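Section 3.1 - Work completed
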Amino acid sequence: MILFRKFRVLILMVFLIACSMHIMIDLLPKLERRSSSACSCSHTPSEEPQNWAKHRAKPGSESGWPNKHTLRILQDFSNEPNSNLSSHSLEKITVGERSEALKRFEQLTGDEKRHATRDSTLKNAVVKGSRLSALFERPLYTRPLPPLTDEDTLFNVNTDIRFDPKAAENPEWNEEGKDGNYAPTVEMSSDSYPNWLRFHIGINRYELYSRHNPVIDAMLKDLVSQRITSVAMKSGGTQLKLIMTFQNYGQALFKPMKQTREQETPPDFFYFSDFERHNAEIAAYHLDRILDFCRVPPVAGRLVNMTKEIRDVTRDKKLWRTFFISPANNICFYGECSYYCSTEHALCGKPDQIEGSLAAFLPDLALAKRRTWRNPWRRSYHKRKKAEWEVDPDYCEEVKQTPPYDSGTRLLDIMDMTIFDFLMGKRIIFTQSCKMVKKSTHSRLQLLAKEEFRLSALMEESLQTDTLSPILIRPHLEAMDRRLRLVLQVLADCIEKEGYSNVVEDDMVAEGMNTGTVPQR
């Protein structure tokens, strides 16, 4: 009986201690707010976060902020080096500031000195002569497209399409029609269209974009500078992605920063368990340009204000309700998705600024009808099961006899994408089983393996144009050179065994020759 009473007393004490801890946890945010209001913090959000609930919530309604989740342990990746408010930006130092800059340089650590020296060296190299410009002047990169027909283009503007003049910010589109739509006061030329529409018009069966088209650079600037008017979560997918609409009606897919540039994926992680990296999206577009595949939608990095450019403009209540303030007084949100959408995987700003990639949208399916073909070498996305191509040595021969891969260049295009993915570090090479590659692709890979046009140097130069530069750290750039050598070695082994003409498909023949394939650039 005495033992039973002691046990009850012990249970009661544990209960009281637990209640006391919960009360302290609930009071802690209020104490932090009082202390923060009495002092000037080193970083303050553009809007006072404590006023959010008062600003949004009405009497009797729920505030929208999950207070119980506030003190959950967060993976605030922005606390790491290369954070959202990063020190990546290359500062321009005037003559009067040189002495001060030299003093700062002496105080840097060894790694920081190497980065600073590398950046200044690269700047001088760009001034003396651009490797990228020299590459794009090579004959491999200047071949013209075949003549285009209406069937070769994906999207055409017709007279039924009307635009809001305020959205396009064009002074000529200022007459309101009787039907409530807007029509131009004069006959419009394609030069007056918004850049995203001109990008859509330029898509054809040979390329998604043209490197020589100035519209692409203008559109990349729009992705960085255009005012964001609305934000919504994209349905589907394992991780959070946002659809952002701009004031000129252009749209882009926003992937927020989840990991710093130095973080590596553990070797025991499955490929479908890894975080999507915003800097990888940016790097993919630049690699696509250098390889001259022109199949990746233009992507630009942008520093987004989570308060003004996401929370305040979204009409998605599910997204808005996931915003909260972290214990570090940073603004965070997590949205809704299949994986990694919880307070444990919240996206946190510094204090409300976050990096992300913005990929330009393709034309809507309702306006530009097209068919979608599944990649025959898609992965199983299963922890135990393997895909058929991973266990069947004759799988490629079966694909070659299956429409639509039994004619045209689709299979060769997939080989291009396989090489592209491997250079990005995404998947293994199966080119060895198919033993085929375009001559133009093989020639470019050989060119990028030369010291004069080393792939890592070209990528570093190209990525410098992005707002969030540097995008890739040195080890990642050097890894691309190693992967390129592996691809060339695999192709060399195939050519040695099968013969050059049986492996390398000549897509550089003169136009008009009946080769059974569509001419490529």
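Second construct:
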Amino acid sequence: MDMDIKERIRRSPPPTPKAVGEAASAPGHPRGRKGRVALLPLSIAALVACGVTLLLLAGGSAARRGGQFSGADRTTLSGAGNNDRGGLDQAGPRDGEHETMVSSKVQRDRLIGGLLAPGFDEQSCLSRYQSALYRKESPHLISSYLLERLREHEVLQKKCGPYTESYKKAIEQLKSGQDVMVGDCNFLVWVSYSGLGNRILTIASAFLYAILTNRVLLVDGDKGTADLFCEPFPETSWLLPPDFPIIQFKNFSIGSPESHGNMVKTEAIHSDGSFKGPKPAFLYLHLAHDYDDYDKLFFCEHSQQHLQKIPWLILRSDNYFVPSLFLIPSYQEELTRLFPQKDVVFHHLGRYLFHPTNVVWGLITRYYDSYLARADEKLGIQIRVFDTETGPFQHVLDQVLDCTLKEKLLPEINAQQPIISTGNIRSKVVLITSLNSGYYERIRNMYWEHPTESGEIISFHQPSHEEHQDSDKKMHNMKALAEIYLLSLSDVMVTSAWSTFGYVAQGLSGSKTWLMFKPENRTAPNPPCRQVMSIEPCFHAPPFYDCKTRKGTDTGKLVPHVRHCEDMSWGLKLVDTGV
């Protein structure tokens, strides 16, 4: 798209003042100076017409990719200033300056405001720099300190990543087993666990913890991580090599002797942070939904102090545990500098980390360009049903319609007239994601059989209906990631309670969704939905423990920016209070 704009500018240069003057005073002109006066308005009109044409062409091109360049095109093509002298006399950039400004704007968008590092091989991961063509520009500012820390972390990942001399040395020390000293390269190993939405949220949580503790993040390649996501760090890999010497790490679980919680429970780790016997070379962190009170001590200040002494940490989780990191005193100042706006942690880290591979990007772009790109408005509806039966269920369909009609996300239908005429027909495309096709078919048929009251043209699309979740299948996961990404490109979104699939789409989009409450007793809730208070995911299984008083407490009331979730009364989520 940026090349289209620049090519139009190159091929349609405005006439220079010198050319106008030469034409007016050409030898043999019968009128002399009067001829110059007659030609000048025509030249001005031609210039204005050319400028308007360029503006319309550039705007149309930008609109096809979400309009993220339209603001830059209006500014640079029309010139600066708002005086009454007309566009020709306004101070605007010359051709070369304009091209530079457009190119600079494109580069900033490609790098998502500096969030991404330049220099990757574009062909190996097309989505990394092409995503700006499909996604609206985020309204959420990125702190300069976050950008600084990301660049520093990239240096650390490159220095200590797999197959480097530093990594080889660290592996040899790990094999030795005991009393390994913490050095320049310390590691956090993420274990692949649970469904795709959970995995994405836990990788983001692990990455933030790695930044806070200056650890290299290595991810387990199980469940097709490399088939789904490109490498996020330049000139290195985040994939844990297959010859990692702790071969049993995938089998660690609650109660494993190597777990931090179990070692605290058995007093192998003393309250002062010292170890009973030799200090281990690694510890296992069990932060999954079934973790016990000893595992939850991970979120206490004193635990963080002795974990700093361990060079290798192995993490297994299915939770977005970021909210509880904000409650650890030693990290609070750093987190505030990283995220002055508290409710954009996943939004920024998710766009930094998760770039679909070329195969998945093909699924995304082909579907988007075929069915979604040309609509005036895009509505995404994510339907997740937590029921032992497959459905479809009437109460779920009722809830979806109640929410979308009540909040005016979908127009009412007219069951009395066969055709509704309107002079201003708008098109709306609705993307539905669900394991079941029944909801899509019934809503689509309703709008096919009856016109809308507003005269809007509504089309419905559902990319897949897998019937049941199968997180171990490669293509199932690829389609799931493609649908998460497609949902996140919606202008407005409706998501389901408790669904990590919906949390990820919401976080990537940067827009507050309408959240449908979880039905009880197969009855549609009233109200059916509400708009979320922040775009952050919910931590489903947080600890309820005050580390200072060593007593149980409501951790959703300790600080203003950590509150209980809309869809899960005991969950925690980050909100921005403006403080």
